Amino acid sequence: MDGAAFEDYRRPGALVDSDHPAVVAFARDAAGAATDPVDVAVRIYFAVRDGLRYDPYGTPLRRDAYVASTCLQARHGYCVNKAGLMAAACRARGIPARLGYADVRNHMTTRRLSEWMGSDVFYFHGYTDVWLNGRWVKATPAFNKELTDKFRLKPLDWDGSADSIYHPFDLEGRRHMEYLAYRGVYADIPFDTLNAAFRQYYPKMYRHDGGAALGGDFAAEGAAEAASR
Fold this sequence. Notes:
229 residues, alpha+beta, 38% helix, 18% strand
């Protein structure tokens, strides 16, 4: 928790740069003709979920890579910076939004990523908390539909009325994701906290090149492993 005031969830942040022209345009285009905050937020959710490819290999551990407008321009990200973009786009349309984090055991991974991580726990998994109809509603715009299809998972939908965290099982009934501990909510992406945690928990991943992006095709790896099961 960062002790932010409610108004901080409306304002631009250093990383949740909701006033950036590209973010403003993205939010406007995603909202289309919708004016109801729930409808607007849902449209933004799907625009972020499916408009940006989920790629855990493509985000270097640098502050600038976690800026919402940078993620948007790259057209890819992972749970943390995609959640940041959703929060920024919601704020750009006047909807309060913040970032939430949790430690999860995520089975939507690949052998290569697991080897780099040295763990099956994803620390500081990111989601977006959106203020709708007088309460906070959780949304997780991380995994695009094209990716979940390759992993043989049902895509995670969101209607703006109920929390949408992640399905516990895949299409074959295998356990997919378990939430282990919540890390609190923030007005902006807490990069220094994430940086310290990732270097502590994933020393192999961030020792090889000082935090540079790993590179690779996560979707192709997942599709190949799903086909071999």
